[in-house]
């Protein structure tokens, strides 16, 4: 496994934004990294091509190697400009990254993590207020989404049946949400 350390900024916590290695590597990060900062939506945006840059992670991923991609992004407006320089680095950010990567490498060594063939399996990951992290397989996240939808529909049906919600109010509310989404 590889750990790609990158930067498109110079401060803040390093964001875990790409995982190639199924849930195993993401769970190792989850167990070991202090104050995790992770977003699967960043991976989705990055790999869709909407972000107009790339990291070395792509090269390893294309060769089938499992790994994690972490980067600083705060203060990114100075990135690759005349303002960019080592004096902009925030010592606490480097300390957080160093402590986290050391803990992660120790966890990988301790656990004997090895590629198990699930490296290409999609994984859903997100930190929880910087104190913990959720890691789900695609099947688990789909199950959670279906369960949440069924629950929401059941609550909606119960509200309509008991008269707490009325169809007209519900239609207005849905129309408002759709208008907000349309801009």
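Q: What amino acid sequence fits the structure above?
A:
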């Amino acid at each position: 496994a590889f750990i790609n350390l990158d930067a498109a900024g110079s401060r803040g916590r390093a964001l875990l934004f790409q995982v190639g290695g199924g849930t195993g590597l993401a769970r190792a990060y989850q167990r070991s990294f202090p104050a995790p900062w992770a977003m699967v939506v960043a991976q989705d945006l990055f790999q869709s091509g909407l972000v107009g840059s790339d990291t070395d992670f792509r090269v390893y991923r294309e060769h089938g190697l499992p790994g994690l991609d972490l980067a600083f992004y705060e203060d990114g407006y100075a990135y690759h400009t005349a303002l960019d320089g080592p004096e902009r680095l925030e010592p606490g950010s480097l300390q957080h990254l160093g402590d986290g990567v050391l803990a992660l490498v120790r966890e990988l060594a301790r656990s004997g993590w090895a590629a198990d063939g699930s490296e290409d399996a999609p994984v859903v990951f997100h930190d929880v207020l910087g104190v913990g992290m959720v890691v789900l397989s695609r099947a688990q996240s789909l199950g959670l989404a279906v369960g949440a939808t069924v629950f929401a529909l059941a609550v909606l049906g119960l509200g309509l049946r008991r008269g707490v919600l009325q169809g007209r109010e519900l239609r207005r509310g849905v129309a408002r949400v759709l208008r907000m989404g349309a801009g």
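Q: And what stands out in the fold?
A: Strands lie at 2-7, 15-20, 67-72, 123-128, 132-137.
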